[in-house]
Every structure is written in structure tokens, then in C-alpha cells.
Amino acid sequence: MEKLLALGLLAVVSLAVSAAEGPREPLCISGIYPSLAAFSQAKTECGIGAVVPWAGSLWFITYPAHYGDGKLYQVTPDLKLVQRPESIGGTHAGRLIHRESRQLVIGPYFIDEKGNVRSTKYKARITAIARHLSEPAAKVYAFDMEGGFAEVDVRTMEFRELFKLQPRGVTGTHGKGGYTGQGRVVVANNGRGGALAEWDGKAERWNLLENKKFCEVTGPGGLLGAPDDHSPEHLLWCTGWDERSLILKVLDKGVWHTYR
Q1: Contact between 73 and 81 (Cβ < 8 Å)
Q2: CATH number of the domain located at residue range(s) 124-260 in this protein
Q3: Whose CB among 63, 69, 143, 225 lies 3.0–4.6 Å from 131's, allowing a Cys bridge?
Q4: Would you kindly state where each structural domain of the chain is located, as residue ranges?
């Protein structure tokens, strides 16, 4: 009994000391914080579709299997993991910081500078968000895994589908990255057949650049987009592969170059 009392007293003292020292940083093991782990309730794959620092926090969306139970998470400066109640599921990877409206668009979520979250109801696996060619202050483009290409109003979050690319054979069967630069928007696909295609924002048809597997399309502006959406001075590049090697395609002053 005396030993139990002593152990109890020791525990109380330890708690008191910890409280006096203030909150402690979460457990870190070789740079890994177990308390920041995310899971899928469906017991399927659960990767990270996109991760972006914004509004004083780190935001990420989980990437489960086909139309899964993905969530939006916020990591606060004191390393607390918050599963946002605005989460609506899905399998998303698109992300863009929209400069004019000062919002982070990550998957189907719009997050303002104060960390307020709005959710869209667009039924798609959004893999890319890109700047709009003709109305950049008011809209963005959204590209999804099934080949849907839509424009989205950044104020109302209304989606309007412009193209269904997959049936046209333009983007293969597994949509991936997308980016706007040099007066065109470029999308990639790494599914069966694979594809890299571009559109000038006006034509009724897309220009198929290659029938090879491509994943990401970006430029030096990164998540903010090109400094000038139409200037030929800002490079745009894409990464892909075929049976021979890795491929890097670069758009420089309106001309495409291919490197292996």
C-alpha cells in the first residue's frame, strides 16, 4: 500500500511539474510526429494529395482510393492536427494559391487568409487547379482524373464544365497535373496511353502534344502560377516517361523542347 501511495504521489508531482513547464512539443521520432498521422476509415491507401502552407497553418488533403473518404486537415503552429469539419471526402490533389482573391484552392476547398474554409459539391477527383486565361481575377480551371475540365468562380464556387476530354482521346485515362502559362493551359495524363495536351482558352479543340505518360505540369511561379499568364518569358515544364527514359518537356518562348 505504501508503495502504491508513493507511486501515486510521484505521478501527481510529475504532472504538476509538466504543467509548470507549460505545454510540451508532440513526440518526435527521427523527425516524424506520430500524432500528425492521417488514416482512411475505408482501410485503403491513404496518401497525401496536396500540402500547402497558408494562413499561418499547414494544410493537407488525404488521397484515398477511388472517390474515398479523403479529409481536409490543418496543422497549427503548435503542431496540433485538426480534421476540418468542412471535409466532404473524395480523392484530390489539385492546389493553387489564387492571388487576386487571396484564397488557397486545394481540392474542393477554398480557404481565405483567415483560415475560413468553404467546400464545393463538385463530384470529381480534382487533380489540378490552374489559372484562368480570360478571367484570371474571377475564375480558375479545375481538371479531374476522369478528364473533366471546368472553370470555377472563386466567389460563388460554381463549377461549369467546359470539356470532357477523355472520350475525345485527348488525355488518356488518368488525369494528373495542369498549369497555365504563355497564353495556354497544359494538362497531363499518366493513364493508359498517356497524354500531354494544351488549349489556348478559345479554340473548340485541344492540341495533343504527345501520347506518352505525363504527371506534373508547372513553372517557376509554382503554387502562385506564372507571374504573367500570357508572357512568353516565363517557362513552363512537364515531367513524364516512356519505355526508354524519363522525359522533361519545356515550353520556352512558345516553342516546346524535349529532354531525356
Answers
A1: yes
A2: 2.120.10.30
A3: 225
A4: 38-121, 124-260
